[in-house]
Automatic annotation (TrEMBL):
SMART domains: Flavin_Reduct
Organism: Litoreibacter ponti
Cited PANTHER family: BLR2425 PROTEIN, FLAVIN REDUCTASE LIKE DOMAIN-CONTAINING PROTEIN
Top-level taxonomy: Bacteria, Pseudomonadati, Pseudomonadota, Alphaproteobacteria, Rhodobacterales
GO MF, any single term: oxidoreductase activity, acting on the CH-NH group of donors, NAD or NADP as acceptor
Signal peptide start-end: none
Protein name as it appears in the record: Flavin reductase (DIM6/NTAB) family NADH-FMN oxidoreductase RutF
């Protein structure tokens, strides 16, 4: 099968997200200029650089009460900071609650009964008990082609690692089983890992 996206795929559901999978989930916490807080998952998320460490996530829709975007991007525009919270399999249901199209005044930490703590390097809350939290300072927001597509880039200024996820000095993902997004309504999680040595490495 071949199709041009501009012509449509002719399938019952768009296969694009299913093709590019699994995708890590960036559970983004932000604080507005008025002190209100927001927590929302984004599956267009990844690390993009080592030195300095940098991450990105993309928001691809808008809400009527936020104009051209959603709460996360609107808050980051105002404050210049955000926190990425890593989602484990055990937190799948509360993460899902925070994905709803809630009004801007709804605090998803409260809505999903999720514990919060203040970040160390930025003025923002992080998810208590998450396997890891990445405190980030905004570097740029890039408007992508399309009506409400924004890519947000940030430099990581602080990293929290849950102690039980550290094994012999390594961050062990099998200790918490990271949740990942597939296509449609599907998810998966990591429970098995294997290693490969690149050519030229020892």
């Amino acid at each position: 099968m071949f199709y041009r996206p501009e012509d449509g795929h002719g399938l019952p559901h768009n296969p694009f997200n299913a093709v590019i999978s699994p995708r890590p989930i960036g559970w983004i916490s932000t604080r507005g200029a008025d002190g209100s807080e927001n927590l929302a998952p984004y599956s267009f998320f990844n690390a993009v650089a080592y030195v300095p460490p940098q991450v990105m996530f993309a928001s691809t829709s808008a809400k009527d009460d936020r104009g051209d975007t959603k709460d996360s991007v609107a808050n980051i525009r105002d404050t210049g900071v955000f926190c990425v919270n890593v989602v484990e399999y055990a937190m799948r249901d509360v993460m899902n609650v925070t994905s709803g199209p809630w009004a801007r005044e709804v605090d998803e930490f409260d809505k999903a009964e999720i514990g919060r703590a203040e970040c160390d390097t930025i003025a923002c809350s992080r998810v208590v008990g998450a396997p890891a939290n990445l405190e980030c300072k905004l570097t740029q927001i890039v408007q992508l082609p399309g009506e409400a597509n924004f890519a947000v880039f940030g430099e990581v200024t602080g990293v929290h690692l849950r102690d039980d996820c550290l094994v012999d000095g390594r961050f062990d993902v099998t200790r918490y089983q990271p949740l990942a997004r597939l296509g449609y309504k599907d998810y998966t999680y990591v429970k098995d890992v294997f290693s490969l040595t690149r050519p030229g490495e020892t």
